[in-house]
Design goal:
The chain has 347 residues and is of the alpha/beta class. The protein has 12 helices and 11 strands. The protein has 2 domains: 205 residues, inorganic pyrophosphatase (n-terminal core) (Alpha-Beta Complex), CATH 3.90.1640; 129 residues, Roll (Diaminopimelate Epimerase, Chain A, domain 1). The longest helix has 17 residues.
Length: 347
């Protein structure tokens, strides 16, 4: 701020999964290489505190594999975006989301570009690329491919390649995520860098890293892949969980941990969405709704049970706790990305 240095931040969403992290790193690298003359410093920001990075096990794995040190990364708690914006020095490119959370509403006017792959919730006031592809990394790869030749290096290609494969469930049509554009980007990356690893090798390594929650506490599990929704009265947490629901619900002290997690953060309730894949890459999904407020829990359950766009085909499962409602989700292709708008509309 004192040097009046303009800063162009590229930032993913607050869950900071592999797609958000790699999209921010790769696009910021591309912008820094191709902006002439660069009057701004291009900075990729991982949208979590540094202390949460260890929970993003697939991201720590892939960056480590590619020789990128954690010390080289910048996290959300290490840069004062509001201060830069107030000083008139901030430009912001959003990747892997296009609606800032209410806590960041003041940064809205700094947003100059958006790349996202989820359904459009509201039209950004800047230029934007919002396309329903399997991975935001696909849109970043396309953007880089349109730029000058020679900018894409092997490390960036490997990051994008692994991310698209993980997000598209190894390009498997059965998982319902892959599109022809994801396939085209994988082909493009492999044509430029034939030494990239075989699909199964990198996909299975990333999947194993992502689902390795063996060392995590319940609180860390809930934080690992966390989104929030809010209205004027309450905040609802939606956590992606990487073990099956029965195992999760029978963790020791689960109820105390759920209550402590929600109380510490001011959440009125929590939706836990679990996913696992069989050997044919077909997903199985279950979900649980927790709240000590019975009216809120009933409302969330009713909204999810009655949803039609998409219908979740929920089947009640036994729950060991009266304040937790558990379900098998018959529509296994309805990922959290599809469930969030249902809950947002209800709040």
């Amino acid at each position: 701020v004192q040097c009046r240095q303009e800063v162009h931040v590229v930032m993913g969403n607050e869950a900071c999964d592999l797609d958000s992290a790699v999209s921010a790193l790769a696009l910021a690298y591309f912008l820094a290489k191709t902006s002439s003359p660069p009057k701004a410093a291009f900075i990729p920001v991982l949208n979590i505190p540094r202390s949460d990075f260890a929970l993003r096990t697939e991201t720590t794995f892939l960056l480590r594999e590619q020789g990128i040190a954690e010390t080289a990364l910048i996290f959300r708690d290490e840069i004062d975006l509001a201060g830069l914006h107030q000083a008139g020095l901030l430009s912001l490119t959003l990747v892997d989301h296009h609606v800032l959370p209410s806590t960041d509403a003041a940064l809205e006017e700094a947003v100059v570009d958006v790349l996202d792959h989820r359904p459009l919730e509201r039209v950004p006031s800047c230029q934007f690329t919002v396309e329903l592809v399997g991975s935001c990394a696909t849109l970043v790869t396309e953007r880089i491919a349109q730029g000058p030749p020679g900018v894409l290096d092997r490390v960036t290609a490997a990051l994008l390649h692994g991310t698209i494969l993980l997000d598209s469930v190894n390009l498997s049509p059965a998982a319902g995520k892959v599109t022809p554009r994801d396939v085209a980007c994988i082909s493009l990356l492999e044509s430029r860098f034939p030494e990239l690893p075989a699909h199964n090798t990198i996909y299975e390594a990333l999947q194993a890293a992502k689902f390795d929650v063996s060392e995590l506490t319940t609180e860390q599990m809930l934080r690992k892949d966390l989104k929030t929704l809010s209205n004027d009265e309450l905040v609802l947490a939606i956590s992606g969980i990487y073990i099956d629901l029965e195992t999760f619900l029978h963790r020791p002290n689960l109820l105390q941990d759920l209550e402590a997690f929600c109380q510490a953060r001011g959440y009125a309730g929590l939706v836990a969405m679990t996913v696992s894949f069989n050997e044919r890459y077909e997903p199985t999904r279950q979900l649980a709704v927790y709240s000590q407020r019975e009216a809120l829990r009933s409302m969330v359950c009713q909204v999810l049970e009655e949803a039609t766009a998409p219908s979740l085909h929920l089947q009640p499962l036994p729950s060991p706790w009266s304040c937790v409602s558990a379900y098998a989700q018959g529509n296994a292709l309805a990922s959290r990305k599809k469930v969030l708008p249902i809950l947002r509309a209800a709040l």
